[in-house]
Amino acid sequence: MKKILIIDTKAGNLFSLKAAIERLGFNVTILQQPNTENYDAIVIPGQGRFGTVMENIQANGWVEYLNQFKGSTTPIFGICVGMQIFFNASEEDPEAVGLGWLNGKAQALDFPKKPMVGWSTLKDNVWNDTIVYFVNSYAIKDSPYSIATTTYGENFCAAVKLDNFIGVQFHPEKSSEAGSQIINQILTQGI
């Protein structure tokens, strides 16, 4: 049984994410600080503010821990703000510095209504026309690492990938069967 680590960033509903991953047959551990165990994949959950999530990740030793896995075969899966922190910064908290693994900045988008809450269709070559659930006010507008986009007021990145870093702006744990398939694919194949 594959072992999955969920990082407790003090933001978001960890238990719905844990339940969604466990339903797929994975063994899930939630940690506030790194330990020395080996995991088959690492998940950085969504919800919460960019600055608060980065503050908690830095304060609890996660930056050094995560940097060990750059370029490895261990998938690092970021969800919502967990994806945004892969980048340099966010307009949501201009003083906060992201992990900087990918160049770019999360920006407030010209949504018809803020925050974006609801279902939207992915456009890409991996999950094309899959409908997933979003809850966000900020996103990466464009990136060379984008593997999926969606539209809500304007186009933005719905998913990014570089080596073993895979991020999604949507919430696969709230996206029904399609979301379960995406979680399973990322945690087992890394896309």
Furnish the topology, listing elements before pairings.
Blueprint: E1 3-7, H1 14-22, E2 27-31, E3 41-44, H2 50-59, H3 62-67, E4 76-79, H4 81-84, E5 89-90, E6 105-108, E7 116-121, E8 123-124, E9 131-136, E10 138-140, E11 146-152, E12 154-162, E13 165-168, H5 176-189
Parallel strand pairs: 1-2, 1-3, 3-4, 4-13, 5-6
Antiparallel strand pairs: 6-10, 7-9, 8-11, 11-12, 12-13
Write down the secondary-structure element order: EHEEHHEHEEEEEEEEEH
What is the average per-residue confidence, as pLDDT, rounded to a whole number?
Answer: 94
Return residue spans where pLDDT drops below 50 for at least 5 consecutive residues.
none
Specify the number of helices: 5
Quantity of strands, as a count: 13
Q: Tell me the fraction of residues in β-strands, as a range.
A: 25-35%
Q: Which overall shape is indicated by the principal axes computed on the Cα atoms? A: globular
What is the radius of gyration computed over CA atoms, rounded to a whole number of angstroms? 15 Å
Q: Tell me the structural class.
A: alpha/beta
Strand order of the largest sheet: 2-1-3-4-13-12-11-8
**How would a crystallographer describe the biggest sheet?**
8 strands, mixed
Helical percentage: 10-25%
Terminus-to-terminus distance: 19 Å
Organism: Aliikangiella maris
Pfam families: GATase
Domain Glutamine amidotransferase: 5-184
Pathway: Amino-acid biosynthesis; L-histidine biosynthesis; L-histidine from 5-phospho-alpha-D-ribose 1-diphosphate: step 5/9
